[in-house]
Amino acid sequence: PKEKACCTQLTVKKLLEQKRKRETSAVHPPCSAASTSPIPPTTIAELTTPETFTFTGGAISYSDMAVSYHSCAPSHESTHSYYSSDPGPSYDSSYLPMQPEYSTQQQVSIFGDSISMPYDCSMAVPEPSVAPSWSHLSLSDNTQHIYSSSMDTLKLEEARMLLSGMDYSRATCQDEDGDTILHIYTAKGLREYAFAAAERLREVGRLDAKEHKGKTALLVAVTANQPEIVQDLLLLGADINACDFKGQTALHLAAHYGFPAVLQAILSGRPNLNLEARNFEGMTPLHCAAISHSVTIKASSAAPADVSLQAKAEEKLSCVRMLFHAGASLLSQEIKSNKTVLHLAVKEGNIKLVDYLLGSRLQNMKDFVNMKAHGHTALHMAAGLHGNQNQEKILQLLLDRGADPSIRNLENDQPAHLLQSGPQGE
Prior knowledge:
It is a single chain. Helix content is 38%, strand content 1%. The longest helix has 20 residues, at 307-326. By secondary structure, the protein is an all-alpha fold. The chain has a single domain, classed as Serine Threonine Protein Phosphatase 5, Tetratricopeptide repeat. InterPro entries: Ankyrin_rpt, Ankyrin_rpt-contain_sf. One of its GO terms (cellular component) is nucleus. Pfam families: Ank_2.
């Protein structure tokens, strides 16, 4: 019978979806560890599912990458809209602008998929054609102290040999989905091969090449929760403020998914990092972190026995802390509804986040607490949390930190006018 085409149309998106499914499940069974070691250049293993990457405009293919993945079914979080400025909790709808085309390695998966087929591909060395004309970083210089404990120098040299043997178009061009070989290696988590590919692309000025959804290799590394590759790419000069077609920077993505290690790698890549970058919905990374934390808190409340949701909520709260300590402004207002992170937290009844924000040391805390979002202060929003078990605690926290109950909204209502009727409102 005719041999099946090698992982037909396998893209970065599919690689990341398979990665997420491999590492997460509703009941979180142990997942087999993925084999991320490329097959030595001198051997060509049998292909369980061959893999071909075809470029538009040429018969170029990548059949020389090896990785074995085993997938696990993802779990799901509830989703909410955060655009309404009305007091009270949000209504259910599709989650925010932050619907990446692929989400990976999340304990809680917001975006499901149906890809479940595992695959094994081999690493074959193409016949050397031209002697390499590109330079690479030596791990004996200023990078050695960073990577000596984790980067396999032998594997890195093998990767460099592989890349040097590829012709120019294979090593530097993009396929029909806009993926370069660097995007593919990054999505697979093949650190040494990604490093070698990044060196090659840097030489030709294509380190920040974007795939069809506008993601650079750095953004793919963030989405795939690959902090080491994120560090490598930043070291090699990747644009730390690059954004995709939704305006999402590396910070937005790391904050949204709740990846503290990735976020730390990005924050260490300063000084040109823009902490107040806006995505195309007008949100800063801190807004995204706050919203994502609220989503996970709600999912955890609905499934209190799920310890993985509790762990993910802690990771996302740590991302909020990291951004704040790095200098992200609590006073920033998202453009669509003028909400600050405090408005976002109060509106969802997120007592943990409210408590953290109000416990921060701001010189202008009273002004912060009384900021308005389309006329509503955080106290107005707390008054609208009818039936929420955290309403009374949040109201008290706000009042203790200087919330003014006499402020009126655009409808001339004070917070007290928005409380529910009956004994509970009293």
